[in-house]
Write a structure and sequence with these properties.
The chain has 4 helices and 18 strands. With 415 residues, it is mainly beta. A 16-stranded antiparallel β-sheet has the order 1-2-3-4-5-6-7-8-9-10-11-14-15-16-17-18, covered by helices on one side.
Length: 415
């Protein structure tokens, strides 16, 4: 199941990360988040200086290629403990292009102590003075993950069923610029997955007569315990004024998309997945940034596989909750983060700290999400800049939610 969730998150907009990471249980197949970035000059107060244009950005943008290599320990309540790894190359696609951010290609993988393994390759290319943006990824994995069921009550109950998901997938996205900062284009994806009960971790001789405590979860998952092929195509819209795609200090990005899964395309089910994200970045000093994020998603259709529900905790919305413990047809999440890179010129200047907090909720309908059932979270983390050329950070975040805690280790900011 995690592979399916992993694949869809990359296509829908990560974050967390443009790297492929079959390790984040369920929808988030990530491509090495080597979104190209322009190295911005020291910020001025936002009220006297508008968001940096791409033309001005290009004047200060480093153009040297760089390697990003990172072993990433995994500590995940859903899939166990292990190691994730990334090898990526960040580079200018055309050295004469003074506008496009650097492109990147990479490969990543994971293995954990519960038997989960995966590997994926992908990239993001910017070309023709950022007139076009191309993203593609493919990979395969076997993921053993714990599933709690659907809805707020299932997450609160804390009873889970161990599942194994095996399969592969591919996605592609092509955006073209309508006007400065505004991009539109199609996105497509294909996944072939098989979900089954992990019988090494639970003994259920007959799924038609399960233990009483698992009966509710099995009723929700019974139809998903098959070989499934899902195929989608849909539109993507971006409005991007960020001064830097790795570590923004100013600007915003509005990112939205719809995935239309259809039997006419070869998908086993017909349904839709909608998602919208808005991130805003404000510089409050030479090395300090306030970042805020709001997102919402909706899954619609008579038959939506469990890995394409809205998954609370995915893409770091919110840190403090294991991905998928809370899930349903609707979800929203908001958060704010304070970021500080230490004001030193030497090696210590490559370190930073963050503090974050927010809240969100899940429900069958948005109107079902009540104030008393909101899911708050907060925490902090440290950063280490991996490259002298590009502001790409290795991050370690500890989040505390209402019912759980998470330790997130990754490359690139949470949002």
């Amino acid at each position: 199941m995690a592979l399916g969730q992993s694949q869809a998150a990359a296509e829908r907009g990560s974050s967390e990360k443009a790297k492929i990471g079959p390790g984040e249980a369920a929808r988030e197949m990530k491509v090495a988040d080597a979104e190209g970035v322009a190295q911005s000059p020291d910020p001025q107060p936002e009220q006297t200086q508008p968001a940096q244009t791409q033309a001005a950005q290009a004047q200060t943008e480093p153009k040297k290629p760089a390697w990003i290599l990172a072993p990433i320990p995994i500590v995940n309540p859903a899939i166990g403990e292990g190691l994730e790894w990334i090898v990526a190359r960040v580079f200018p696609l055309d050295k004469q292009d003074k506008t496009s951010p650097p492109s990147a290609v990479g490969v990543g993988g994971l293995f954990t102590d519960n038997g989960s393994v995966g590997v994926a390759v992908g990239g993001r290319l910017y070309f023709k003075e950022d007139r076009y943006r191309l993203t593609a990824a493919t990979g395969g994995a076997k993921i053993n993950a714990d599933v709690y069921g659907i809805g707020q009550e299932a997450g609160d109950r804390g009873i889970f069923l161990p599942l194994t998901g095996k399969g592969s997938g591919v996605m592609g996205e092509f955006l073209f610029r309508l006007r400065k900062g505004i991009y539109v284009g199609p996105r497509t994806q294909y996944r072939n997955l098989k979900l089954q009960i992990n019988r090494e971790d639970v003994d259920i001789p007959d799924i038609n007569d399960p233990p009483e405590e698992l009966e509710g979860i099995l009723d929700e998952l019974r139809n998903d315990l098959t070989q499934q092929q899902t195929v989608a195509i849909g539109p993507r819209f971006q409005w991007d004024t960020r001064d830097n795609t790795f570590y923004p200090k100013r600007g915003f990005i509005l990112d939205s998309g719809i995935d239309f899964f259809s039997k006419s395309l070869g998908s086993e089910f017909s349904y839709q997945y909608y998602k919208i994200v808005f991130n805003k970045y404000t510089s409050i000093g030479k090395e300090q940034v306030i970042a805020v994020r709001g997102m919402g998603c909706a899954a619609a259709g008579d038959r939506v596989p469990i890995y394409d529900n809205c998954l609370f905790g995915s893409n770091s919305d919110l840190r403090g909750y294991p991905t998928g413990r809370y899930q349903d047809r609707r979800m929203f999440a908001t958060q704010a983060e304070y970021r500080l890179m230490l004001p030193f010129k030497n090696f210590l200047g490559r370190f930073g700290i963050v503090g974050f907090g927010g809240f969100g909720g899940v429900g069958k309908k948005f109107s079902d999400i009540s104030f008393s059932e909101l899911l708050p979270a907060g925490g902090g983390g440290i950063r280490f800049r991996l490259s002298k050329t590009y502001p790409i950070n290795f991050r370690i975040d500890y989040g505390i939610g209402r019912v759980d805690q998470t330790l997130t280790i990754s490359v690139g900011e949470a949002f």
